[in-house]
Amino acid sequence: MILLQAARERLGADRVLTGHQLTGWEDTATGVRAHFVHRRTGETRDDAEGSLLIGADGIHSTVRSVFYPNEGPPIWNGAIMWRGVTTDQTFLDGRTMIMAGHEFQKFVAYPISCRGPVLNWIAERKFEPDHAWRREDWNRPGKLEEFLPWFEKWRFDWLDVPKVIRGASRCFEYPMVDRDPVDRWTFGRVTLLGDAAHAMYPIGSNGASQAILDARVLTREIQARGPVPEALAAYETERRPATARIVLANRRNGPEQVMQLVQERAPDGFARIEDVLTRQELEASASAYKRIAGFDKDELNARAPIVTPSRR
User: How much of the chain is in helix, strand and coil states, percent to nearest 5?
Assistant: First the structure.
């Protein structure tokens, strides 16, 4: 909502149009003309014209499907995440994120409000993959009976997991799906961004984060070169290899692999984590993934600044 509000303020509220589906586009003498249909009524709307077309239309991208018509559905790795928000519950100091479990079953929770106790949580289970399984719409309501029994005994002196799960008014089901990296995003004045370009498992907070980094680099290149195909090509040169590495790293469980390592080394539990996993191993894993994901603080601070555009 912060990003949406900023876009409306800078572009004008009338420039953000919701409820429409891209159906196609065509090149013009000066840019691109895109065609849309209203998703609810099926009515066509006036064409939109611009210098460039950025396909930021998600894992089921229409733009990507034009360039890769035989790609098929997203790839499911067997894991399902159930996500919910629970109010009036907290744990530890009220400012901490926790991850419990391992590759095949885990629970994640963290506060998302400074105005009171509100927990965002994720319960995850990994099953045998069945690639005929198709439920990846991210709007599918979750059913407690499908996952809560696996977490019923997860009660700690500082967090009651089943209580947190039951405390949510509703939850949603998110299958862990991605797409294989492709060798090209940009075709003339059209390019891909975000999940349309590099759908990946939401490990290491990389779902939306990488789309924001895409937008940062794309903005920089358009500012430097203008709204021309060369700006799109420069953007792709930087971002496509970087995001491909993350897609593949997340298939190997990303930074969460340390949890699986502890599970394998101490399946019956432990008294001191230091006896199972050294701090050097933990820090090395975190640092390596930060570099892959582009989250290294020093590298980020060294990058060229983005000039905030004024509203025109």
Answer: 35, 25, 40
